[in-house]
UniProtKB/TrEMBL annotation, chain A:
UniProt-annotated catalytic positions: 105
Gene3D superfamilies, per database record: Ubiquitin Conjugating Enzyme
Catalytic activity: [E1 NEDD8-activating enzyme]-S-[NEDD8 protein]-yl-L-cysteine + [E2 NEDD8-conjugating enzyme]-L-cysteine = [E1 NEDD8-activating enzyme]-L-cysteine + [E2 NEDD8-conjugating enzyme]-S-[NEDD8-protein]-yl-L-cysteine
Listed pathway(s): Protein modification; protein neddylation
Annotated source species: Clunio marinus
One matching Pfam family: UQ_con
EC code: 2.3.2.34
Protein name: E2 NEDD8-conjugating enzyme
Automatic annotation (TrEMBL), chain B:
Highest rank taxon of the organism: Eukaryota
GO cellular component entries: Cul5-RING ubiquitin ligase complex; cytosol; nucleus
Annotated metabolic or biological route of this protein: Protein modification; protein ubiquitination
Encoding gene (name): putative RING-box protein 2
Subunit structure: Catalytic component of multiple cullin-5-RING E3 ubiquitin-protein ligase complexes (ECS complexes, also named CRL5 complexes) composed of CUL5, Elongin BC (ELOB and ELOC), RNF7/RBX2 and a variable SOCS box domain-containing protein as substrate-specific recognition component. Also interacts (with lower preference) with CUL1, CUL2, CUL3, CUL4A and CUL4B; additional evidence is however required to confirm this result in vivo. Interacts with UBE2F. Interacts with CSNK2B, the interaction is not affected by phosphorylation by CK2.
Family annotation (InterPro entries): RING-box_E3_Ubiquitin_Ligase, Znf_RING, Znf_RING/FYVE/PHD, Znf_RING_H2
Listed name of the protein: RING-box protein 2
EC primary class: transferase
Length: 175, 110
């Protein structure tokens, strides 16, 4: 009885209302995302009651990172969908657009992007998933790097960098 | 035209049967919908003619006590959204989320 009254008191504080906007959007978006997953990615929810934090595993089937297994943590804060989700790469990776700390450079994850490709509330989780998946193929961009060192090396000797990436995948990110 | 042909053929036979039915009334039906670019608010994904997700989450009493209902806003680009949703977004970025044009209000629903 005591807990029930306390629960009701908390609900009337109005704190639960603001959370529910994000959660209402997520119920639809997570389902849509699951139905449209590319064949190279998998999702997993550590807490099935919480849709706002989950892991994404990408296993590219082509390109420089082919046969690797890269895990990302996706966190959706309460200010979603006015703000983009937060994405962190948890696997060690050599990639021009992913830093050593795991920060991901993807224009749709940026709020103020110059090219008009930035975050918009019309974007959905499935767009984020497609974006991250494409970082290993089409969206990989050595000319707009987060890992500047790697990009400079690539400009000097691209074959050498490609080989280094392949070796790094074999050592750190095999399935 | 075919009726005339039938008549003549039946006249010659002089065994014309009674009509099965006659058309007494013809009703045409028109369909209509709101003349808006997108009927679903692309921000909260609720129909623009309904209250937005945020207003729905608040109790109806609250909405009435505030400055009226959840209205629709049209931009110069002809895209429409809930006014509530759009005013939150323009604080971040003053562009239409659908066409990226600079956002300026064309009109509001009353």
């Amino acid at each position: 009885m005591i807990t029930l009254t306390r629960k009701k008191a908390n609900e009337s504080n109005g704190q639960s209302k603001r959370i529910s906007i994000r959660d209402k959007l997520l119920v639809k978006e997570v389902q849509e995302m699951e139905e449209n997953l590319p064949s190279t990615v998998k999702t997993s929810f550590p807490d099935s009651n919480n849709l706002s934090e989950f892991y994404l595993t990408v296993q590219p089937n082509e390109g420089l990172w082919k046969d690797g297994r890269f895990k990302f943590l996706i966190t959706i804060n309460e200010d979603y969908n006015m703000m983009p989700p937060k994405v962190k790469c948890l696997t060690k990776i050599l990639h021009p657009n992913i830093s050593a700390a795991g920060d991901v450079c993807l224009s749709l994850l940026r709020l103020n992007s110059i090219d008009g490709m930035g975050w918009m509330p019309t974007r959905r989780l499935k767009d984020v998933i497609f974006g991250i998946n494409s970082l290993f193929t089409d969206l990989c961009d050595f000319d707009d790097p987060l890992n500047i060192e790697l990009s400079e090396e690539y400009a000097a000797n691209s074959e050498k960098v490609k080989q280094r990436i392949r070796e790094h995948v074999l050592q750190n990110a095999m399935r | 035209m075919s009726e005339d042909n039938d008549k003549t053929s039946y006249d010659s036979d002089s065994s014309k049967p009674d009509k099965m039915f006659t058309l007494k009334k013809w009703n045409s039906v028109a369909m209509w919908s709101w003349d808006v670019e997108c009927e679903i608010c692309a921000i909260c994904r609720v129909q623009v003619m309904d209250a937005c997700l945020r207003c729905q989450a608040e109790s109806k009493k609250d909405i009435q006590s505030k400055d009226g209902a959840c209205v629709v806003v049209w931009g110069e680009c002809n895209h429409s959204f809930h006014h509530c949703c759009m005013s939150l977004w323009v604080k971040q970025n003053n562009r239409c989320p659908l066409c990226q044009q600079e956002w300026s209000i064309q009109r509001l629903s009353s």
